[in-house]
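Appendix B, example 12.
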Amino acid sequence: MLDTGPILYVVTSVLALASLAVVRKYLDDHSRPPLPPGPTPLPIVGNLLSLDFTEPWMSFNAWRSTYGDLIYARIFNKPILVVNSEEVAKDLFEERSNIYSDKPQSFIYEPFASNFNIAIMPYGDRWRLHRRIFHQTFRQAAAPACSTMQIRSAHTMLFNLLQDPANYPSHIHMFSAMFVLSMVYGYEPKAKGDQIIHNMEKYLELVTESMTPLGIAIMETFPFLLQLPSWFPGATFKRASVKCIQAGHDIKEIPFRYVEEKMSTDDAEPCMVTDLMNKMNGFEDDVIATAIKEAASMSFGAASDTTTSTLTVFLLAMVLNPEVQAKAQAEIDRVVGKDRLPDFDDRPAMPYVDAILRETLRWRPVVPFGIPHTSMSSDIYRGFFIPKGIFVLFNTWAMTHNETKYPSPNEFKPERFLHEDGSLTNDTMLLGFGWGRRSCVGRHIADSTLWIAMASILSTFSVQKALDEQGREIPVIPKFTTGVVVHPEKFPCRIVPRFLDGSAEMLRQMTGLGQP
């Protein structure tokens, strides 16, 4: 006869342990403060079906009226906390930076060549090393040394806009790329078909297409998708991974080899990589050498994409708001005149141009939903329990469209950043550059780069609506891309020279440059 005693003992023990776990979870849930409010999640998918995944910041901004400045939600099995107000963001990311400075990690970062991206790197020694590398080149104190290249890049952009105004997206992108690659590698790209720029753009495109929030959620839920052979039908993620790894190798190694070859012939320009190499006496430390390669390669994506997107927003705002453009040009003409182009010495006397820059950042932030942070320990804030390891996102869109602080937030009104006497307010609109220890170290250089580009374009051109065959203005209906960094899709416009003869020769005389 079968002895059921041991089996009964095991079953009873398992049931007892399971019951104990349930009771413990119940007691924990009811002994601690409640989670922040949020919509009720569905089984398995959580709040996924309630979100507009093309513009999730809009969904959370809409929920703000119901749930407040701190919203708890779940996407599949991932709990997330969305911060909708500037005040809460400062409290968490700055005042409690010891808790909220980490970044959520995923096993998919390495297969998609993203594990060396400082924006998603875990808080720790490796991140600190990368941060020091970036700080040396992009800190606020380094901004004046960049002015010559910023102005040269802006003037080259003006030449390109004069000769081929219809291709304005390419010229704006080249302005950003020229400045960043010069700072980092001492490299001046060709006007068209530059291989280094092509490699950088290819990498960014592959990563952006593959690592969408939905794509990450799918791969983390079904990790076997990355184990399939590339030839297997439906192995889309695996094939994308192979391409990303190759592209990641190219952006790290190819421009770095360019600098090494220049240094070997004593022909290298001062830049981020050469300065660091000289201090290391040739890179005896492989860890630091690798970090410099990685940080340098990430500079392009971090600076070029956001700068290009912001300047495209600026052009859109000028087309839609001709009265704003005219007011800025009157200020420039009064301060600078029409015989030269603006430089940084003119900036203090042109507050309205600065107000346009700030309003551009506010009106259509190009990173509307910040890259997630994660909590390193549990926390209690405003009576709510915030668990360890939760994804914490700051909703930049909600902050810049706060109707209490910015009335009529969908209108483009630079005057909101000016006092009655015309002087600038203290609202510098740097919140789009992140918070606390993980804020963008290059935000001050980004600010001056955007300013010189905007001031140069306004002084030289008028951006107007395009005309149809009958000479009637073509309406501009803004459409925006999706992803982590968003920008307006190409829209029809006319970029018309403001100086009388509109010749390249006159522009060369004003800039002091030869043919770019």
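The first strand starts at residue 70 and ends at 75. The mean pLDDT is 89.
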